[in-house]
Amino acid sequence: MREEDSVKEIFRFLGRLGISPLPVPPSWYAVPLRLIVGLGFIEHGYAKLARGADGFIAILHALGTPFADLLGWATIVVEIVGGTMILLGAFVPLAAAPMIIVLLVATFTVHISNGFSSIKLLSYDAMGAHFGQPGYETDLLYIAALLALCIGGAGPLSLDGYLSVRRNRTQTARPAMNKIGWSACPPPSLRSRPANVGCHALTALKSHRRSASDSFAGTGGCHD
To answer: Cα torsion at 100, 102, 107, 111 (round to 10°)?
Structure first.
């Protein structure tokens, strides 16, 4: 019986791992996406700087891109700064917008003519593997990951997550404060009701202007 119970436990464990979602907090899905997208963009931007920005700008000139100098530097900045923001989970939608634009430009100016696949193994010899021109597959994967982060959130260990928690706490606290204020002193339209004599008395005691009975008799409501 013990062996049978052990086998059942093993199958239950495999069943939990074989069906999504896995038994981990759902928000952690964002962490691997942020790592690969953020580091990937930073690497591409740094590579352009390491080889010299003029080389990348020359490629843009060869493609007939207008304002090649401006767009060349803008692309490098977007890749490095945007990649860092995604890595930190900081203002993800704002960072994702220019990054997606860069990816779409690369797709339609360079990669689309090479087909879908980004990995095309042509041959292998003593010199190693030889690949063809990459397609737009990787561009679409980056775009999908950025959209997923925008829709599902930056997840834990992120600036957006921290700001989201603070915003939710503030929004939760406001109705509670409004409810407390309503019970202590209702709006003017309801102050004439007898049930609000307590509000009148509380306000009169705090102001020390007149006694509760005289204030209520003279004004028919509560005021400072």
So the answer is: -140
